[in-house]
Amino acid sequence: MMSGYRFLRMIRGSLLAAILLVAAVFVLFPFFWMLSTSLKTEGRGMKFEFLPRRVAEVGPVEIDTAGVRVGEIQFDRTTVDETGVHPALRSAGADEVIFVAEEAKGKRVSGRLFPKDTEVWAAREALPAGNWKITYTVKRGWKAAFFNLYTFNNYRRLIRNKSFPFKTYLFNSFLVSVSAAILTVILCALAAYVFAKKEFPGKTVLFWSFMAAMMIPGMMYMVPQFAIVTQFGWINTLQGLVVPHLANVFGLFLLKQFMEAIPDSLLEAAEMDGATETTKFLKIITPLSMPSLAILFLLTFITQWNNFFWQLIVNTPDSPYITLPYGIALFRGQYETKYELMMAASSFSIVPIVILFLFTQRYLIEGLTAGGVKE
Amino acid sequence: MIRGTNRTPGIARKGGACLLGILFLFSVGCGGGRIAQEKGTITLWETYNNEEHDVFMEIVKSFEEWYAKERGEEVHVRVKRIPFDQHIQKIKFSAITRTAPDIVRVDAGELIDLVYGQIVYDLKEIDPKIEEYLSTFMPVARESVRIPLRHPDGKVRTGVYGIPDQLTGVAIYYNRTMFKEAGIPFPPRTLRELRDADPPWDFKRFREVAKALTKPERNQYGVALNSSLWFSLPFFNAFGADFIKIDPDGKFRCVLDSDSGINALTALASLYWDGSEPGAWLAGAINPDRGFINNKYAMIVSGPWNLKTFRKSGVDFGVTFIPEGPNRREIPVPGGGTIRVGTSTNVGGTDMAILKTTRQPRLCYEFLKYLTRPEVHAKWCNALGQIPVQTLAEPLVDFSGNPDLKVFVEQMRTAVPRPKIPRYGVLEVSIMVPQIERAFRARNRAGVRLALGKAVEEIDRRILRDVNVPR
Hints:
Chain A is of the alpha+beta class.
């Protein structure tokens, strides 16, 4: 027999698991939506449709069999014209297509269409002249139904599109993000070491001046930074994209706080063994700060990976350094957005971040829990 | 700790190699910058989508061939795509760094910002007869490039700052299946049908239909609205509300809080108060386009850009006019004559502008004129299913395969130009959207009056004060 306490624990555990599951679904839903949209056939991206349907009803569409097109479908006397066929009827793999045509005067004709070729279905018999409203019932097998809703074409179109050099954009994004992340970590680590472990006149004032700069909204830096980049002739260059973001005050603060926790006795011991400043920094400070360095690397990488506006203004369309956020924005027009292609490009764009997380998660957990344990 | 220390030399070596690599890339990455202006070559930045870009490139090629044949000179048009998002900022920044192209394609509402920034050519300087050339354009398209500026003498003069290249506006999309289920006849699809409609397709009828189509138990609503100014302008226009008036001393003044303006916004908000509109404009709600595709909203206000998307999604829809308001006007129709109707719409689209940094303004102008030649423009409209800006192209455009587009073309005849003031982004996002939403939430006419009064006050303070500075 299960004791009351164990039963209560089991109930509590199950409840907690259920809550976590709901929270996980909630958190992961945007990711699921992005992925499913990227795999949907054109025009279906905005539909709340995730499960394939074997039987679909299409229409009604209005046609004038006397030759004048009323709706978007052209149905001449013998066949459905390929140029005007309703998209749902252009589906490969349908098992059966049944049509019901109703005329304004009440006349009703129904029948089966036959596959004209691998994709298009056509009527075998002519409809008498008149205005008809036709409804189609399309029946498919599971496989065909699945591929009627989902496709890999968006990814293919993305990679093979000549006017959209996706691989170049991806490489440039990677280059800019990695360069910015590495250089930011180096610069911030050096500065943080000095602020954490050295004494010099005006240190506190200087540090808090830097901290005060963190309170200024990022957009305020945009114009002066842009002016500097322009003066240096860095438009359309890697330097223009990377250098203005290297002096990261938040990074300095993060690393300084972490380095302050490293016991001074370690550095004193190293000094007594004859270690130089460089040795102390490289052999003691850097390895012990690795979790915080990893966090800063990751944060900088993600920020630069998603940075759109700076990359937009520093690159002209001729630039060899056009990046992925700029490229993805090309799918968003004045009024319409190509959701399926945009989501396919976005799905690709998160891959490096996921890989980076996988490689740095140990350091991240160490970094996040570092302050949680008191000795 | 020891483990970390032991790995340091490896990390240092790898880190050093990375650093050297980056420094190398930085050294070879130097250069770039200004766009070279070669004789006979012009650079154009555009924001077209993939399909439009492909058709545009064909037209560019035909221009180069035509120019070589007609003028005996080789020219080259370098076309570069930029994202539509933030395109005005991009152009402004490039003008500062002298990396701007010769021609830019800009949103019609944002061209004014470039004009106030004094970075685009007044085409009257290149061709004094430009007004004559534009006389064959759709009036509202023509108006999108004719921009008045207040000069130091206090007088307002109108310049021509571009050539319209795309025209768009909104009408009502309706779900035919829902209409049929509710036993409601389809609304009119031509201006003549609108004039003769019985019962008339006016705002009263629109409100009744929206109520009849609302079935909250099925999560189905009669209409879905957008709270932006641009999407509300057709209703303001149909009610005869003016936006800006120019005083005799040349000062611009916002008059949107007139009785007509309050009536228009009250009528629009009443759809939400009735429960026929579910609050599609609220943050996080299903937006009108998405709800329409998923058969949740029976009617939405949208433009021709959605025709293809809606068709592909399989929704059974039709297009009709913005319901009539009290502002009945005589609308000229092709073939002569006029039709008196009370419908109206807004004006969107894009213009091509020549930047003052160009060294070849005449060649740029020739190219823009070529784009809007009737046969060239008709090719563009036929390939992409777009509304012609050049009326001479209209007979050459085949609407038979796209009857819904024809409704939009008819609706555009009733359009009223949008307010010709700069900082459209501020006007829309920071001023009008919050106040329109405030009016919707008010649930009474007094609240609508307050919201519009506040909007006018903000427009005067944040936009018109600067506009009234002589230039």
